[in-house]
Amino acid sequence: MALIDLPAIEIAKKIRQGDLSAMDVLDATLTRVAEVDGRPGTLDYDEITKDDETKVHAFITLTAERARQQAERVDAMIDAGEDTGPLAGVPITIKDLFCVKGVRTTAASRILSGFTAPYSATIVERLEDAGAVILGKVNLDEFAYGSSTESSAFGPTTRNPWDLERVPGGSSGGSAAAVASGQGCLSLGTDTGGSIRQPAAFCGVVGVKPTYGRVSRYGTIAFASSLDCPGPLARNVSDAALMLSVMAGPDPRDSTAAARPVPDYLEGIDRGVKGMRIGLSPDYMHIAFPDFATGEIITEDLAGEIRDAALRAADVLAAAGAEIVENIPLPNSVFGIPAYFVISRVEASSNLHRFDGVKYGYRSRSDYQGLHEMYRKTRAEGFGLEPKLRILMGMYMSAGQLNKQYYQRALGIRRMIRADFQAVFDPAGAYRLDALLTPTTPTPAFKMGDIFGDSTLMQYADQLTVSANHAGVPAISIPSGLSAQGLPMGVQLIGPDYAEATLFRVGYAYEQATAHDDWRRVKPQILGEAD
Ligand code: GLN
């Protein structure tokens, strides 16, 4: 295994002990980027070349010079005997939805194409203060609206390192693809309906959606403010735990960041699962979607291998001493996507008002007469199809007479979904679960172009993840094996509010118990010949 493929914790340890320099790690990582990533995303990219098809294209902006300065700073601190923090010299990528001071920040949209962030997101600051070295900004669906990264205005489109014909998932697709291909140990993503966990599952990495409010959103470009959660993508559970320990916590600049102390998530991570109650729910073993002709809800069982991977994970945890509790009722999760469709669009349309050609980034270069025409042209040219659809839907469903019929109803469903979770995690209730175990996604990564263009079908990729966003509870996706086609699959652990430490503990126990499984030795296609 190449040195740069080691877990972040080990790389940081070697750097802090002086066995490795941050600059060496950075150079080796930039070599990997040069080998596997191909040209960074641009607007108006020309035809896809043959060469593009053999590369990952995780990056929109590579910040090699800035990274060198960071690595130099870390090395100088180590030479001077100063504490560099727990992420000393660890290469990391940032979803291009976070502000990084002095760096172009696009949200993968033309409308922000000329915007340079004047400040860094609080959590970006925290990661850098802990010694992390930012390699650059990685691709995503435009404004995080999607599940495949195909809706980005910047291309060539990001590809799945396990199968370059397939999508990496989304919206944090660049993040998951980067981690899976060794372009940095960690990545910072966001999850509004599944955008960290779904790409993590598609790319065979760990992804964490923390409790809503656990992590500050200051400096994060907003999608749906009541659902958005920044979180880590990482190679393993311990790295994700370390990264969350660094990021989480109150922030005077974000009043929704909870004023609760942050535990050291690594502490006690290896205590095992003996005596824990872990639930399986039939409501997470099928998918349900509307038949557009009749309006009826069609229910289909999940693909056998996806369901089996979750059941196998339950067996592993049972063998490690957990008590598996079956038939957990979560009857309202089936309405998660319809309710999300309404709430996320209403909030998205509201959050997009600020992009008007005046404050940030792009302004139409064509002729316009007066302010209104400038707004109209800027937004018509600057937004891609998906933001436009979401603006229309969001405005429609929150408009006077429809507000009650759609938006208020969706909020009611959201409360019911949260109540379901509260009931099953209630320590005095009938189920008393420590965690719920489910598959992360209904299918492994799909082929590029297969679903893109059908924004409703695309949305159903989040069927098993979205309810945790409605409920605000934490959830983590961990790799759980490979499908018959050799594609990664993930299982999800969901817990009660602020139970991230429990989820890390369960995930870690699973990782330990499966450490010698054959599938753990299989590498993504792109790394086949890399080392
Ligand atoms: N795929 C979902 C959507 O399109 C969720 C995206 C996200 O979590 N940011 O809205």
Descriptive notes:
35% of the residues lie in helices and 13% in strands. Strands 1-3-2-4-6-5-12-13-11-7-10 form an eleven-stranded mixed beta sheet, sandwiched between helices. The chain has a two-stranded antiparallel ribbon with strand order 8-9. Among the domains are: 281 residues, Amidase signature (AS) domain (Amidase signature (AS) enzymes, Alpha-Beta Complex), CATH 3.90.1300.10; 70 residues, no CATH class. Helix 2 packs antiparallel against helix 3. The longest helix is centred in the last third of the chain and has 26 residues. Helix 4 links the parallel strand 2 and strand 3. The protein has 15 helices and 13 strands. The protein is α/β, with parallel strands linked by helices and 531 residues long. It binds glutamine (GLN). The site of glutamine (GLN) has 15 residues, from strand 4.
Summarize, please.
35% of the residues lie in helices and 13% in strands. The chain has helices spanning 8-16, 22-36, 64-79, 122-129, 173-180, 197-203, 237-247, 304-319, 336-351, 370-382, 385-398, 400-425, 455-459, 466-471, 500-513, and strands spanning 59-62, 91-95, 133-138, 186-191, 206-209, 229-234, 277-279, 286-290, 297-301, 323-325, 435-439, 475-482, 488-494.
